[in-house]
């Protein structure tokens, strides 16, 4: 069994589609092993997206991620990392396949509804960034 970290970003939380997005995961056979709604601090968002610190869109990305609460979840299942990325669709919703979360719920590349870990190794670090072991079951 593999685990991945999902974030329902501030745009999707504000739209009231938390339940619809979690349903996509569960309907695809991913179990919600942990979930919570939190308001990220600027320090949280900068640390979480540190890999993008040198990119031109970094400040906009951080501003967006702290613009409202997010829902972070641990998803568990066979091939969870790739399965979640498939369900999410392309980073830019204009390029996302029909029926994906970003095609259905995202406005643009800045406000793109969800984050998902991009490798099993990063997933372990991202899960520990948000959750204590006793919060995951
Ligand atoms: P995420 O990490 O949020 O799941 P991703 O893995 O599909 O998204 P990354 O390349 O990791 O994409 O980029 C992280 C986030 O930075 C994207 O979700 C997007 O909001 C923003 N971003 C990425 N590329 C661009 C870009 N060219 N212009 C503006 N924003 C961008
Ligand atoms: Mg990414």
The secondary-structure class comes to alpha+beta
Number of helices: 7
- Residues in β-strands, percent: 15-25%
Helical percent range?
A: 40-55%
Our Rg estimate from Cα atoms comes to 14 Å
Notes on the structure:
This protein has 137 residues and is α+β, with helices and mostly antiparallel strands. The chain has seven helices and four strands; from the N terminus they run E-H-H-E-H-H-E-H-H-E-H. The chain has helices at 10-15, 18-27, 42-48, 58-65, 80-88, 101-105, 120-130; strands spanning 2-8, 31-38, 70-77, 114-116. The longest helix is centred in the C-terminal third of the chain and has 11 residues, at 120-130. It starts with a strand and ends in a 7-residue tail after the last helix. The protein binds adenosine-5'-triphosphate (ATP) and magnesium ion (MG). Adenosine-5'-triphosphate binds at residues 52, 57, 61, 91, 109-110, 112, 115-116, 118.
Summarize the model shown:
The radius of gyration is 14 Å and the shape is globular.
Q: How do the helices and strands line up, and which of them pair or pack?
A:
Blueprint lengths: L1 E7 L1 H6 L2 H10 L3 E8 L3 H7 L9 H8 L4 E8 L2 H9 L12 H5 L8 E3 L3 H11 L7
Antiparallel strand pairs: 1-3, 1-4, 2-3
Adenosine-5'-triphosphate (ATP) binds next to β4.
Which terms would index this structure?
alpha+beta, 7 helices, 137 residues, four-stranded antiparallel beta sheet, binds magnesium ion, binds adenosine-5'-triphosphate
